[in-house]
């Protein structure tokens, strides 16, 4: 695990702004969490899809960059399965494959009841070694 990349991941200003915490990170793996507040709700009082996407994307970024390879997202696809229950949502990213320049991650997002609320598939471009 590259300490400089971990520092960069933890320095993500947007993640901090929306209240995302990095709970665990390792090579090809990350666990992130966000406490839902009023600022995360849409007009019908569900967690806004962009907030869920941001949590999942941050988990992907942490997992992909933990190896010490600067990786940037090039495509993400998210499916929203159901609205979350409770006040905490958690995203878990796991590497599905990695080649010299491309990596793919699967990210599952859960609510307080450990119910699956969203799934993301993310592809990254590995910029350097």
Automatic annotation (TrEMBL):
Highest taxon listed in the record's lineage: Bacteria
Gene3D superfamilies documented for this protein: Hotdog Thioesterase (3.10.129.10)
Keywords for the protein's UniProt record, in alphabetical order: Hydrolase
Pfam families on file: 4HBT
Keyword Metal-binding tagged: no
Entry-linked SUPFAM superfamilies: Thioesterase/thiol ester dehydrase-isomerase
Chain ranges of the Thioesterase domain: 46-117
Stored PANTHER family: ACYL-COENZYME A THIOESTERASE PAAI
Protein name according to UniProt: PaaI family thioesterase
């Amino acid at each position: 695990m590259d300490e400089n990349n971990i520092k960069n991941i933890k320095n993500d200003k947007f993640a901090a702004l929306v209240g995302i915490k990095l709970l665990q990170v390792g090579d090809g793996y990350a666990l992130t969490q966000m406490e839902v507040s009023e600022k995360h709700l849409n007009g019908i009082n569900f967690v806004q899809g962009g907030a869920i996407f941001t949590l999942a994307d941050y988990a992907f970024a942490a997992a992909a960059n933990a190896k010490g390879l600067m990786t940037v997202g090039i495509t993400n696809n998210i499916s929203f399965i159901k609205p979350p229950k409770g006040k905490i949502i958690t995203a878990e990213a796991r590497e599905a494959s990695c080649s010299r320049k491309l990596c793919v991650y699967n990210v599952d997002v859960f609510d307080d009841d450990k119910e699956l609320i969203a799934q993301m598939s993310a592809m990254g471009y590995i910029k350097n070694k």
